[in-house]
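Protocol step 6 of 9: fold each sequence in the batch and record its structure tokens directly after the sequence line. For illustration, a two-sequence batch is reproduced in full.

Sequence one:
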Amino acid sequence: MSSNHDATSTPGLGFVGSMTASISHEIKNVLAIVNENAGLLEDLALLAEKGRPLSPDRLKTMSANIRRQVQRADDIIRRLNRFAHSTHEPAATTDLGEILEFTAALVARLAAMKNVTLSVAMAAPVAVRIRPFVLENLLWICLKNLFAVTQDNRTVVLGAQALDGQIAITLQMGAGLPLTALGAQVASEGQPLLAALRAEVSVDAEQHLMRLTMRPAQDE
């Protein structure tokens, strides 16, 4: 699937801005925890100077806490690095399951703020030639509009399957959402992305899902 869509387009800029803000907030949270532990270590050092013995168990606990946060920060930076590279990657044959998993990880913090749990369920691997950033952007538009109207604890299951020469990506959302309005909003806001992906958006009220149906270009 070819596409001229990139991070300088209106949907792309909004997506990059939202993800950068969310990821930077995650990093700040990590730094705050590391700083708190550094302060505790400083307090212990001052007490030790006054003759109070250090607790090895407490030092080990604090060391483990710092190590966990360093690992967490490394995971966040890896995610940010992958996202940054995806903004200019050309079309390539890609496993849709990986894109769905990565998108779910990107927006996990924002989903948690809305009491939404994201998961991915794939019956079988699905590969398609695509620009990952374009699909990630479209999925974000689907999810942010969902976040705007959901009011309770909700699980959203992302999936994809190939059928009759088409690729169907589904967002199983559960009951109680204005699916028709959501579908219309995604179709309007995501129009350039849908065009780039040769895709259409539809909803299924009986199955409580939104479906993105893509038609892979035959010349690629």
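Sequence two, same batch, same settings:
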Amino acid sequence: MSTTRPEEATNMETRRVVGPDGKLLTLDDLPPPETKRWVARRKAEVVAAVRAQLLTLEEACKRYNLSTEEFVGWEAAIDKHGLGGLRVTRIQDFR
């Protein structure tokens, strides 16, 4: 049985955060759980959602089948190089 009150559940469902492109994101706007092709924008959206507490690190890792190390790597790439640091084709440029 859930201990979440109905008004809290509704609040979490409609909660929005600012994504990497400046647009508002909700849980429904995040990449689908079955995502296989991770472009920079999708990675950045997940990082933004976790940082803004739209979902927890554990929830994100479970939802997207990610390791904690992979997610932390995405965060580090954003912090160090911005969105461009998440592009797989540019990774050698940033090392």
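Proceed to step 7 once all outputs are recorded. Observation for sequence two: The beta strands are 17-18, 24-25.
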